[in-house]
Amino acid sequence: EYEGDRNSEGQRHGFGKALLPNGDTYEGEYECGLRNGPGTYRFKNGALYTGNYLQNKKHGKGVFFYPDGSKYAGDWVHDQRQGYGEYLYANGDIYTGEWANNKRHGQGTYVYKDTGSKYVGCWVNGIQDGPAELIHQNYRFKGRFLNGKPLGRGKFIFDIGCEQHGEYIQPMQEKEEREEEDEEELPLLLEPIWKASEITKLTPWSPHDE
């Protein structure tokens, strides 16, 4: 069902309201039959998008409210979260920063609601990867991350005014004798281990320097 403006060819053009066959509704601007410009799209499942469209796709600035209570406000390109935006997750965590192909990608800050800790740094395809700082209540860690875990040289900076330098090392897993039927099991990736080297006064070292 459609109620609104049309052009001389009878296409939806201008402002209109539509009820789609799947139960979704759209209210906003059309151009030559396609959603184009500002509009509000309500999904039958309770989700809602309000923002800009380009040829039926979310494109430009827009806010999406998801059925689980989470929310994204920011840039869109061809229906994907892309550019800069803020995502409030259902558990209360917040990510603010760059996006590409619907994933956290580039520079961004992720705040963990439960602990108040925050990760400030690089992301690759949704995973913490590259130079970053992990800030906790009384101290912070400055170093590099790989696949979501700290790895390599870094330092812990304590609010009392000192630093502990060292590195995160990826431990190798001891290979056990396995029964033949267990051959397919992948080795478990062990948590990186912190090896401290020295404690100093505050220094200007940064993972970006390397």
From TrEMBL:
<keyword id="KW-0206">Cytoskeleton</keyword>
<comment type="function">
    <text>Functions as part of axonemal radial spoke complexes that play an important part in the motility of sperm and cilia.</text>
</comment>
<keyword id="KW-0677">Repeat</keyword>
<feature type="region of interest" description="Disordered">
    <location>
        <begin position="1"/>
        <end position="20"/>
    </location>
</feature>
<protein>
    <recommendedName>
        <fullName>Radial spoke head 1 homolog</fullName>
    </recommendedName>
</protein>
<dbReference type="GO" id="GO:0031514">
    <property type="term" value="C:motile cilium"/>
</dbReference>
<keyword id="KW-0469">Meiosis</keyword>
<dbReference type="GO" id="GO:0035082">
    <property type="term" value="P:axoneme assembly"/>
</dbReference>
<dbReference type="GO" id="GO:0051321">
    <property type="term" value="P:meiotic cell cycle"/>
</dbReference>
<dbReference type="Pfam" id="PF02493">
    <property type="entry name" value="MORN"/>
</dbReference>
<keyword id="KW-0966">Cell projection</keyword>
<dbReference type="GO" id="GO:0007286">
    <property type="term" value="P:spermatid development"/>
</dbReference>
<keyword id="KW-0282">Flagellum</keyword>
<dbReference type="InterPro" id="IPR003409">
    <property type="entry name" value="MORN"/>
</dbReference>
<keyword id="KW-0969">Cilium</keyword>
<keyword id="KW-0963">Cytoplasm</keyword>
<dbReference type="GO" id="GO:0005634">
    <property type="term" value="C:nucleus"/>
</dbReference>
<feature type="compositionally biased region" description="Basic and acidic residues">
    <location>
        <begin position="1"/>
        <end position="12"/>
    </location>
</feature>
